[in-house]
Amino acid sequence: MSNIYQHGFDNCLTMRLSNSEYWDLFLCYDCQDAPNPDIILTGSCLLINIDINDDNSYSGDTLYNLVDWTGSTVYGSGVTLNDIGLTGIDNGFINYECSASTSGSTFLSAFTGSTLFLSSGDTRFFMTRVSGCTYDYTITPLTGTTEGRYSRLCGGFYQGFFKLSDKTYFKDITNNKFTWPISWFNCPPVCTGTTSGTTTGSTSGSTNCCPDPNKAYQCYLEEKPIPYNYQVLPTRYEQGWTSMFWLRKDDDDVCSGNTATTLNDVYSGNTGFFYYMGTRAENKFWNLFSGETGYTTSSGYPLPPPKETEEVLDNNPFLVYKGGCCCFTGITEVTTQQKDRNIDIVNNALGFRIKSDGSIGYRTLGISGVCSAVTATTVVNCDSQCGCGCNSDTGDTKVTATTVTEKYVTGVTITEEYSKPGIIYSDNWVHISIKFRAYEEYIGCELNSVPQRKGSLDFYVNGYLKWSVDDFDEFLFKELDEYREKQEGVPFNYSWGGGTQGLIETNTVNGPDVKDDNLVIQENFAGTFEGDVATFKMYGCALDITLIRADFENNKVRFGLSSVTVPAPLGIYYGKINKTSIIPADATSLTFTNTNSVIDTYKTLSTGGGYGYILIPTTFIQPSEFRDSNNGCNGFLIPTVELGEINITDSNGFPVTYNIYRTFNTFAGDIDVWMCG
Hints:
By secondary structure, the chain is mainly beta. It has 4 domains: 46-165 and 229-287 and 342-369 and 410-555, Jelly Rolls, CATH 2.60.120.200; 171-223, no CATH class; 308-338 and 371-409, no CATH class; 571-676. Helices cover 10% and strands 33% of the residues. A 9-stranded antiparallel sheet has the order 2-3-7-10-28-17-20-21-24. Strands 1, 8, 9, 16, 25, 26, 27 and 29 form an 8-stranded antiparallel sheet that branches. It is elongated and about 110 Å long. The protein starts with a helix and ends with a strand.
């Protein structure tokens, strides 16, 4: 026992949680030589670095990435997009004269004749300023004293694609043959054997032959068009990702002079989107539109959706054959010429938004499980099919109509969540970091076979964790269910300073397709951030808080922030001013007292003429009445006027919104004003 008392020391560490700062915890063997955060922040994990103040990044309406992804791929010496006008006019990537007739040569030249060359020597991700013919997309370049050049957004934003779909040119069918637009190839009909009475082609003097599907496919492999094979950013990340922004939210001042109609004016529920990823729009060629009839891609593929025909066999023997006749009616052909417009956007749209109350959050699209239907009618002439009347008694030749309804899942559900208000302050530069960390990490090729993962989505402001979402679904980019020529530049997009237009500015031959208006993406993401943006970084890894804070520290002086990164303690202003209304500068003549609550407390308004003023933060519980009393809320009611809100910058440079309370009359004496609940 003596040994216990002599040598049994309590060597356990006593730990207490401090709420002054938030830190990730690390266990390491030897931390004496800690890694330099600047090396990590500028290393291979950095995938996007756009700085409007850098001449190498800013070029008028185009923003260029200052770094290259090591995995960038561009086919051969480059890729030429001969159909970029088909979709590029929808977000202003391809310009055209808005007043020109959509059936005239000016529009057709932009729509069907525009090209874009993506050089293998330039693998930089780039973003362009969006535009359109209906709404205003104002972006004004400005230069600050310390922050340098930045962009003021009053309806405009930037958008860019980082990958092209190389959707297969052919599709498998049941007999292992392949179908494609024959005009794409210069393959002669290679035949084998002969078929009496049928002439399908000829080679080497052969006639009446059947094409050899194997040789035709070999020709396809040899003669197929050059692949797009363009990708300058990854679509998925082993551990997660982190996006960082320096921006300044407008408080209805800097953009107030802009009277033109913006997306925010039409879709007020979409205001504040500052970051978006996914497809920028639905497939504009999802339905049959008369103006597109007869027009094709540069390879000859028709713009309208393909006709899809399915044979449906009725196996009921009592229904297959008509009584008294050999007429076989058990096969019904179902023909559709319309794609599911929503299949491309489910889990392919994610936007981040700052609301007017200073809260921050996200909005995304998932599958709802709602069933839609396509109805097709097939008309069958029994007499022509069987050579006999469908009715044995009368010998009549009748026509039958069969209606078939195909049901399929097509609906989407909108999911969104936001932090508490007041996270983002207006009229001040702020550093925002959004981080997704998957619960399960996979390395290299393992990730290719892993389904969508869950993880945490964290929001940091000026280096501090402000809000976290658990069990967030990993975002997976995907291409559209369409041929590559008809979706150039549409999927695999990032937007900065806004959400996305959807098809709100779409146009085609003979004008816009009315069925493209008010689709899901347009209704839920057609909105923009109003204010200033300066830098955008995106990391292909989930940075820990020390690195996020290091990035903030490295740039805070540039954006006018001191070493103090948190707001000063809250409190109230009170006193007398001989004015019927006040401005923020008048607060200097009032007394400020730190407090967390005002209900059932009092302040003394000292002797002197003027109106009595009390300014209370809007985040506090507000008093319902004010009373003149020496002891509690039992005195005379003081008539007061509520003058609205006012923003006052605290001692650490953060704005605080206050409710203004003023006495109805002026008075000269002192008074104890109780703020009663």
